[in-house]
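Protein modeling request. Please complete all fields; requests missing the sequence field cannot be processed.
Requester role: graduate student
Desired output: 3D structure, token encoding
Chains: 1
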Amino acid sequence: MNKRTIFPLKLINSHFHIFQKFCCTSFTKQTSQSLPNLPGCIMLLQACAQNKSLARGQQLHSYMLINGFLVSPLSTTSLINMYSKCNHMNEASLVFGTSTHDQNVFAYNAIIAGFIANNLPKPAFEFYWKMRLAGIMPDNFTFPCVVKACTEYFEVLEVKKIHGMLFKFGLEFDLFIGSALVHSYLKFELMEDAEKVFEKLPMRDVVLWNAMINGYAQIRQLCKVVDVFGRMNEEGVVPSKFTVTGILSVLAVKGDLDNGRGIHGVAIKMGYDSGVAVSNALIDLYGKCKSVQDSLDIFEMMAEKDIFTWNSILCVHEQSGDHDGTLRVLDRMLHAGVRPDLVTITTILPACAHLAALMHGREIHGYMITNGIGMDGNDIDLDDWYINNAVVDMYAKCGSMREAQLVFDKISYKDAASWNIMIMGYGMHGFGDKALDMFSRMCVAQIKPDEVTFVGVLSACSHSGLVSQGREFLARMQTEYGIVPTIEHYTCVIDMLGRAGRLEDAYEVVTTMPIMATPIVWRAFLASCRVHGNTDLAEIAAQRIFELEPEHCGSYVLMSNVYCEFGRYQEVLDMRHTMREQNVRKTPGCSWIELGNGVHVFVTGDRTHQENQFIYGGLNSLTSCIRDYGYVPKVLQATV
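Delivered output (640 residues):
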């Protein structure tokens, strides 16, 4: 037998699952003259790591095992690196633990770096301690990874211990370790410690400056970011694309469009604008600065789009109120073969809720169930809280309270927002008793009601005519629950009294409440006056609204309709004249309907739909039918 094929039985057993793969390896088909030696295997392993070629790497592992190449420390380190880069840390740990020689600093560095690259900080830190116990001295490649592990594992004390140890090893001025320490201290919001490390480093490269900029950005120290960037320019350090993305994120939060355009120009000049990360940051900047068209232009010009690109442009549409556009972009995203993630879903669900697009919402919910997003186990996860509440909210706003209740009941952990959504949902759809029952169950579950809870409760009383209960809740808010009524609560009560026809009581609340009435309050009161035909109180409300908010069209329309109800057409014409003088224009009415092939949106007098003739033909036919039953349209009211 060839001497190279003799190896311990223990080694065969520990690597048996890899050894089995050898039977199908392509190396057995090669001639002995073309088989790689140890240096050749090391080079091939590096190529496998770079290309994430796991199958080829396992074949090499089998070949090296059979030929006795694993006795080399370099082969162990290379195998650990290959498995780490292929995201198979179990195999990397197996290689580390079953090697026949003592491990050196390079093997420890490889396994620690592998765990960090795979977002596993705890085992990385554990291997660091094994390294110390084994008497292996860490070097300048060990410490950046260990500092990052401590940061992700929230071990600030260990970071400070490592910082002190650097002086013992003479590594206190190492640039890479310094950058890791700056990032760590800023993540823990220890700004003074980060600045001390930064100032004591004799040399500062762009990576270190980026650590300062991005670190300050993550803890929302926006002014500090701008100061560091200015100092960086003064010292002649050329910004990298990571610098640009960090600055753009800060300017987006500040809503600083002018400086954002300046950084955009810098990115174009340096050729960074073609990068996906920079383009994504620009989309986010322009979207948050309400420059939607600029965001869309950048999106359309991008040759390559990742999931962050799609999520960014979805957020731009949703934040600008273009819910229909949000769903259209989602359709493009799916046709492009990009799978939605958690961020996508949390953006899409509110769009479905706003449009009452129940079918789309159900599809998204089905996707969540299929892919295990939300409601997994009993672990408290903030993302799960948010996404589960978003699903309940979508069903509630789409009017499907049965499905909202089913999802709500399956949520293992319910916070105040979960209960508020259900109370609001039942209230807005006229199920006042069920809304109050949910409030009682919320109190039994020892969830403390908040201001939003009582907006939902009072709104439910308003929509269901539960006047006495509503007034009782208003009286008990502060004394029993410690919540001072706000303008939103008083508005609900005024609306409740107005709907019930108790206009004098509503007017008394408006004039005696401890908060100054806003145009919204007066408009709610005016709407009630119109419903119950009280022109005297309507004129008082309208006069107050015109003084507080003369540019709002809704008040003029409501008052015109009041006059129209009583045949006071001269006042209607006067109101139109006032609108023209004040340059007030009525916002066109908008409606939409969800069909199998999407959501169709219409505005008043819309003639742009591709089936325009068919729609208006059906509308005219319907109008003729209802006229046959004596319906006469109120032309003046409809055209104000």
